[in-house]
Each structure stands twice: as structure tokens, then as C-alpha cells.
Amino acid sequence: MSPVACPNCGKQTASTKVLPKYHYRESGLDTVWLTGGVTETRCRSCSKTFIRVWKEAQLLQVIALGLLTVPKSLAGPEWRFLRRACGLTQAQLASLLKYPRRETVAEREAKPNPRLSFPEEVGSRWVLVSSFQRHLAKPGNSSLEASQLEKLWSFAAFFRDFSDTVQSAHERHRITAVAHGGLWTLSENKPAA
Predict the structure, then answer these.
(1) β strands within the chain, DSSP E
(2) Coil, strand or helix at 8
(3) Containing H/E element for 82?
(4) Do residue 44 and residue 18 come from a single domain?
(5) Within-domain flag for 162
(6) pLDDT tens-place string over residues 98-115
(7) Residue 113, domain member (yes or no)
(8) Which of 125, 131, 135, 144 is a good FRET partner for 93, with 20 to 30 A between their CA atoms?
(9) pTM, whole model, 2 decimals?
(10) What are phi and psi of 50, to 5 degrees?
(11) CA torsion angle for 72, 74, 78, 81 (degrees, to 10)?
């Protein structure tokens, strides 16, 4: 390995190496590991170490895409990561989620498990997916490849269509329960008038 200039002291006493595996704590998430794409520079003169992540902006958006499309509850740090990936402040996200206080978002982000109800989890995820799409649609914001954007748009369309189906089914049909012979039974579901 030939010596390279140190980013800190400028001396030609640094060396670089590609790391085969790296725990990417800088993301704010303790669960992200990288395989390849990371270079470490160490300087003998000033004893500093620097980490460079290849296409880091794209990596952060790929992580956000993964968090948004994987069907599991979001942890507090994942909430924080996604909010930032959407370019939102805590106050802006609170407003989008119709929370009366910004502190509600801060509290959820601080908890390892915010323990949201299923409807809250689904609603929050929809707001985050929509916000991520809007953020990426602004010129210069997207670092994702076309196939990755397609995955996001497909997921969002599926999510929206599913919500619309549930909503329209709820609006068009009613359940009628009939008391007969000491039992409740359901009559045939009919479209609402």
C-alpha cells in the first residue's frame, strides 16, 4: 500500500484499506451492517481514522426503502431515521400525523419499542411512505436507481389500493345483526343504500 494524504493533517502518512464488513452505526441504527463499499483511512502522524462509505446518500435511501417496505413494527430509532430520510422535522411529522404535540414524535423516537397500535402503525407508515415519495420527487433529492424507485412506487400503490379497497368496502356495505330465537345472527351483507 502506498501512503496517501491524511484528510486531517495533510501529511503523506496515511494508508487506506477496503473493509470487507462494517457495522454502520453512523446511520443512527444499531442493526445496519455493510458488506463492501467502505474504505478506512488511518494516519500514522496524527493517529486519526476516517471511514468513507461509497455512495452514502444512496445507501441511506436504500435503508429507508427497506424499513418502509418490510412488514414489521418500527422501532424508535427507525422512526427517527425515516423522518430524517423524508426531510421532515419532528414538528412537521407531528402535524402530518395529526398529533397535537411535537413531543409525541420525540417520545416515540426515543423508545426502543414505541408500542403503536396496528392502526397507528399502518397510518404512520403511510404518512412516511408518502413523505418519502414527495421528498424524492424534488429535484436533486433522489439517489436511488430506477429499479429502487419502482419498488417504492409499487409498494406505495399497493398500500394505497389496499387502503382504498378497505375504505370503499366499509362505505358500501353494512352489517345487519338480527336477534332471532335467543341468538344474534348476521343477515346477508348488502350494499348500503
Answers:
(1) 14-23, 33-43, 49-53, 173-174, 177-180, 183-186, 190-191
(2) coil
(3) helix 76-85
(4) yes
(5) no
(6) 999 999 999 999 999 999
(7) yes
(8) 144
(9) 0.79
(10) -125, 140
(11) 100
